[in-house]
Amino acid sequence: MNKEQELAEAGRFVRRFFELLDTNPAELTSMFDNESSVFIYGRENGTTVGVDGIVGKLTALSSKGCTHKITTMDSLLCEREDRGILVSVNGRLKVDGFDHDLVFSQMFFLKTKGQSFYVRTGVYRLKYLLERVRIQGF
């Protein structure tokens, strides 16, 4: 793949990630490997490593009836020894039972695996939370 194809494939990967996160997070297993780590800002023991732990945590969070809407996505090809793609996503998060959307950001460092990618490292953060809105588990 050339640079433009890699960046386009990374965009498709990230859109598919959020689609699965919202509809069937158990299917996210192919998007991680045992070296993957994800940090969810604001959670005790926020860093989780490995496929089972990450998918388990994301499944638990998704059980709250969340829907992500990507508003911006930027990608940068990292062409060093640890070649990969850094992806920054911003968006809105709708949680069932709440009137106001939340704003989130997520950073992915994607590594190649065959003809696709996996999440090597991810960082997720809710950027805006109304004082009066408290979500159990976040």
From TrEMBL:
Pfam families: NTF2 (PF02136). The lineage of its organism: Eukaryota, Viridiplantae, Streptophyta, Embryophyta, Tracheophyta. It comes from Helianthus annuus. It is found in: Cytoplasm; Nucleus. This is NTF2-related export protein. Residues 9-126 form the NTF2 domain. Has a role in nuclear-cytoplasmic transport of proteins and mRNAs. GO terms for biological process: mRNA transport; nucleocytoplasmic transport; protein transport. Its main location: cytoplasm. Keywords: Cytoplasm, Nucleus, Protein transport, Transport. GO terms for cellular component: cytoplasm; nuclear pore central transport channel.
